[in-house]
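Handout, page 2. Input:
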Amino acid sequence: MTAVTGLLPGTELTSRRAVTAEDVATVARITGDEGMHHVSGLAGRQVAQGLLTVAFAPLLRTEAGFRLESARVTFLAPVFVGDTVACTVTVGRVDGPTVGFTLRIRNQDDVEVAEGEGTGTLAAGGAVAGAGPRLLSADVLDDPYPTYRELRETRPAYWSDELHGWVVTGYDDVYGALRDHGRFSSDRIDRLLGSRVPPEALAVIAPFVALASRWMWMVDPPDHTRVRQVFNHGFTPRAVRRLRPLIEETVDDLLDAVADRGSMDLIADFAYPLPATVLADVYGIPRTDAPLLKQWSDAIKVFIGGTPDLAAMAGPAADSMREMMAYFTAVITDRRHSPHDDLVSTLVHADEDGPLDQDSLCANLVLLLAASYATTQDMIGNGMLALLRQRGEWHRLQAEPALLPGAIDEVLRYDGPVQLTHRVATEDVVLRGARIARGDLVYLVRAAANRDPARFPDPDRVDVGRQDTGHVAFGAGIHYCIGAALARVEGVATLRALLRRMPGIELDPAAPAAYRADSLQFRGLRTLPVVFPAAS
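Output:
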């Protein structure tokens, strides 16, 4: 028998999460009551393998796969929706691939609500789940691609204790799951935050979660379909074409402001104010409000994007959501009575299938603004850094401007602003030998998929002439980015203007570029100093 690597008797593994209505219903179906029951045999295995036990137990999430042989669970007190429970699994014995364990579940009042024990077998040579890289470490956040490569080659689907979920990195697996909304649900906000936010912060973020659960990227059909149909009115091909003159004018205005200086921070002087100005005009709000809206958006983005310190960001994110909701409630009220030629007016009156309620409309305006600020800024920053580091491709674009549209797709593939997407498994799924249980959180790492050599030859090099544009930087399936066409227009306008007006632009050798490294989901530069010949 081969011993289980790194797993010793007495090892304790603990994880925490909020109890959902689905959890309680699952136990009620199995036990026949609200949870105060003694179950064993088949029912014990179901409970232990179900949402109230094994979903909390990192022990039972292994790369090699864990087969639960027997289990007994006794519920000592009721478990209610909204409880925050901590499950501690203690390894009792390890005999080759056989693992014996006990478990205890306690609620937020430190009351023990369940106890149990069980045994199972681990595939030979298996390692403890979560023994992989720490994805929230500063080194990985600064440059995740070597880690993505390692995971894709050695552990294409593995359970991360740090993230309380599965991490999936191969192109075919990520693309397939993004399109399979039947088995991989977007209704994930409770699981995403409940598993990592400490109990003392749950009350703080409860209003945030209630509103974020209405975001179109956090819901499944039919709710997603209803919201998406309304918001599609603002992003028709005609609507995007109408914005091209505004975008090109804004690009030139921003470059005019720095042309005589011979240097700039491409983030602060260009990549940030471009989407801020364009979105203010698109939304029909004063340009002077853009910095405040950006501040609110950043707090929400960092919190939802997987910051290493969720507890510290809970308050700022909740405050920002509240302020943005109040801001857009006032804008919506005004547009209902006095329509303008802007996105908010279009959406308020796009109600042929029945209007969205005020909270849903407002929450999705917040989402759209926050997402658009960050992703456009980061697309420009990440893309220009890649092209200036691989300067031959910049010269290639100068010689062949027809490659510009494809170049935007290529830099999005190479170093996209959105690194991953989360889903929740709606049924048991076996992926690359790993058993993903119903209710498990799954991290679909789009940036890792976009560097999969099985799909993209020589993936760690920018190739502006690459013919395969099947990247997943904008997602795939029903949740494909609603603003993708607008982002491409902004990207092409930026590259065309820089190539025309500042062809000699290069990285400032005295001031290196720096990534923010504050979020697992969103990747972008804090600063990108560049120099160029000053305009005469």
